[in-house]
Structure formats: C-alpha cells, structure tokens
Amino acid sequence: MIRILDVPAAQSSILKRMAWDEFAVPESILAKLESMFGERVSPDEAVRRILADIRRNGDQAIVQWTKRIDSIDLKTVSVSTDQIKAAYDLVDPQVVEALKLSARRVEAFHRRQPNISWIHNSDEGTLGQLVRPIARVGVYAPGGSAPLPSTVLMTAIPAKVAGVPFIAIISPPQRETGLPHPAVLAAADIVGAQAVYCAGGAQAIGALAFGTDSVQRVDKICGPGSLFTTLAKRQVYGMVGIDGLPGPTETVVIADESADPNLAASDLLAQAEHDVLASAIMLTPSRGLAEKVQAAVAKQMESLSRAEIISQSLERGSGIIVTKNLDQAFDLANEYAPEHLCLLVKDPWEHVSKVQNAGGIFLGEMSFEVLGDYVAGPSHTMPTGATARFASPANVNDFIKIISLVDLNEKALRAIGPAAETIANEEGLSAHASAVRQRLEILK
Q1: Predicted pLDDT at 246
Q2: In 10 A of CB 437, how many CB atoms?
Q3: What is the Cα–Cα distance from 342 to 358, expressed in whole angstroms?
Q4: CB neighbour list of residue 64: distance below 8 Å, 6 or more residues apart
Q5: CB-count burial class (<10 Å; 0-12, 13-18, 19+) for 125
Q6: What angle do CA 167, 156, 379 make, to 5 degrees?
Q7: Would you say residue 346 lies in a domain?
Q8: Which tens digits make up the pLDDT trace of 237-287?
Q9: Where residue 9 sits, what CATH number does that domain have?
Q10: Residue pLDDT, tens place only, 10-33
Q11: 380 included as an active-site residue
C-alpha cells in the first residue's frame, strides 16, 4: 500500500535525502562477504581487495571472482563476433526491431546536440577550442534479475555520436551460457561496439580501468550497476573518468485534479518495480486524487509480476504527498531534484518554467516516463540522488574533451603581459613573473 502524507511528514521521511552510500547494507550481503573473505568486511573494503586482485592478476582474477561471487564458471572474458551474432537467434525478432527503433531515435536526438570546435582571430592573435572525442569508453550494462539492453543504447549511442572510436560493452554472464544476456549482445551489435566483454560487478569495473590480457583499458567508464559496481567506480576514479555514482532510481509525479488516477498509478508502479530502493513519489494539491491513486495502485499491483519488489519500494521511500497548491508541489520537487519529473497537470507547458532541478521532464499523460526509458530519444541515464542540482543526463558532451588553443602575438603580450606579471608576483611565483618580464624586455 502506498501512503498518503502531509508535507511535514513527507519532509521528515520520503523527501529526506540520503547519500547513496548511507543506506544500510543488508545483513545478507554482509554475511556473504564474511563467508567469501573469512572475516567481517565492509562492501567498500571488499571492492578494494577485488580491484587490487584484478590489477595484479587480470583475466585469472576475473574468472576466480566470478566463480566465488556468482558461482559461474566463466569460459571467456572476451565475447567473439560469432557469439554476438548467434545471440540474435535467442532474442525475439520483435525485441530486436524495438531495439533498432530505439537506437535510431536516440541517435537522432543526440545528433542535434551542439559539439563544435571554434577559432577566433583578432589583431592580438588567435584563441579557440578544439573538441576531441575521448579515445576509449567502457559501458557497463547490468545483467542481474532484469538485464538492461536499453542501457547499452542509451549510453553507447551518445558516445558514438561524439566520435568515440573505441566503445566496449561489459556485462555479467548468465548462468546458463556463461555469456552476457542475448539481448545485451544484440544491443551491443546494434550500436556497433568495438568490443564486448563478459564480467560483472567490481571485477568488470577493474578490468576496464586497469586492462587485462583480454580487456582493453578505457579512458572513461559509464553505466549503472549494483552497490559494488558503484563503489568500484568511485575507487578507480582519477585513473579513469566516470559518468557519476548512480543511486536508486526515482520519479516524482506532480498531478492536479485533471489527472487520470489509473495512469498516475501506473507511472508510480512502473518506477517502483525497478528495485526495492526505488522511489515513486506523487505531489498533488488534491486529496481526492490522492485517495483515488492510492486505490488504483493497490488494484493494479495484484496483476504485476514484480509485486513483491513493488511492495517493498512503496513501503520504503515512496508515497503520495498532499500539498497546499501546485506552487508548493514544484518547490518540493525542486528541492528533491528528481531523476524523472512527470507533469500530469492540465497545462504542463504553463509550469515548465518553474522547474529548476530534474534529470528529465515528462509533459502530460502521453509523455510518460516509460517512453523515455526506451524510445523517446534522450538518454535514460539521468542524475539520481539529488545530483540533478548540478548534473545532466548522459549526452554527447560526456564523451568529448575540450583543448584550449592559444596563439597570441606581440601586441597581446604588451597589452596583457604586465597584468600577468603583477598576478604572478602577488602569488609569490617569481619564476612565473620572470617568464613574463623577459619577454617584455625583448619587446623594448
């Protein structure tokens, strides 16, 4: 059952943000780690030891940790072209066509994003910037209870549009085949990945960061994953770039009395079924709508396959909040800074200017989040955990770097050199000041 809360109760519970690494670690995970390491260790320490082993022993460590963690005998770390092509026979043709449609739309959207070098010439010389793609990008595609081929499309395609010449996909093995899920392999082929690897969790992140005999080291690692994947990304950051530290997925729905309670309920349930830590929150000034949505959620849950996961998600961090008015709803949403913000209101465009913090805005009942997850066009990899205050969805700019270009002449030196010398002296950097002064003396 989803709760109905007033604003003060919500602010002290479901709207109160916790960092992704502050969530209590389930005892079952701690017990498993103790059985694996022979002592009580934290997830962070477990990841540290796994990464150190991957760095020292490469492929051998990947195979050993896959056996210890997942009880899977990994036959190969590098997936062959023939294995990728064979995966199509294991995927429903309708799924393949849907993935191809999604790929076309995601590529078309990201090709509209500006990504240019520029050069400005003046009588003082030339300034500019050179845009260069990152050379090697690794995409982690989760492969647990719900493998996500869509993640491959949503992450690799912006990298492809940016001009990244080497894109690698890495995904955990399935118990039956010892290979990534067939739909993930098909998605990797659709995006034209240059390499596909088989590994999961911290060992996958370590392989991409350090390189092994089978895995080519990359310059940036992207993609969501488990707690252990996220901890591993944090630990290798600096040796490689990362896209961020994604936490549990989240949706905020703002609705008024015009909203269809059944559709609002379906949007909340679609979010809640991701995992038990997902958050599905509705803000509405209508108590009547809140009660109708609450009833619709209970009724629709009865026929859903992941009802147990949904139930836990709804009890933990989800709820319907009754606000004074829509303005208060938007204020609370901006403070929460959700990954997804869905506007089920009479005139959504009238309210867009009120949105300051959100990964994506979904306007109206026909622009619901599930379309954004798969086929709308923008990447579904969006900032979580209130990072929408400063972060953006995955986009072309994540996969480029800018090189500043400076070519100044004597006129520029005469004009700005004295200021540079002054600042250098103020900072106590005499060699800096001398480098300027010597050139100014040449011009005398």
Answers
A1: 84
A2: 17
A3: 10
A4: 53, 57
A5: middle
A6: 165
A7: yes
A8: 999 999 999 888 999 999 999 999 999 999 999 999 998 889 999 999 999
A9: 3.40.50.1980
A10: 999 999 987 777 777 878 888 889
A11: no
In a domain, 389, yes or no: no
3-state secondary structure of 376: coil
Which residue range(s) make up the domain with 262? 4-18+248-377
Same domain (yes/no): 41, 109: yes
Q: Residue 31 carries which side chain, given as an amino acid letter? A: A
* pLDDT for 111: 96
Q: Which of 358, 377, 396 is the endpoint of a domain?
A: 377
- Tokens for 429? 């950097």
Q: Residue 210 in 3-state DSSP?
A: helix
d(CA 310, CA 331): 27
Is 283 in the same domain as 357?
A: yes
Beta pairing partners, 137: 167, 220
Q: How many domains does the chain have?
A: 3
The phi and psi torsions of 231 (rounded to 5 degrees) equal -60, -40
Q: What is the pLDDT of residue 75?
A: 87
Alpha carbon distances (Å) from 348 to 261, 302, 304, 344, 363: 17, 31, 29, 7, 6
Sign of CA dihedral 172, 174, 175, 177: negative
Could you tell me the CA-to-CA distances from 387 to 20, 97, 243, 334, 353 in Å, in that order?
11, 34, 12, 11, 20
Q: Which two tokens stand for residue 83?
A: 């294995």
The closest of 204, 199, 209 to 237, measured between CA atoms, is 209
DSSP string covering 33-57? HHHHHSS---HHHHHHHHHHHHHHH
Q: From the candidates 110, 274, 340, 351, which is the catalytic residue? A: 340
286 and 434 co-located in one domain:
no
First-to-last C-alpha distance (Å) of the chain: 82
What is the Cα–Cα distance from 392 to 116, expressed in whole angstroms?
A: 19
The residues pairing with 129 across neighbouring beta strands, listed in sequence order, are: 118, 404
Whether 410 sits among the annotated catalytic residues: the reply is no
How sure is the predictor about 145, in pLDDT bands with cuts at 50, 70 and 90? low
Among 110, 273, 274, 339, the active-site one is: 339
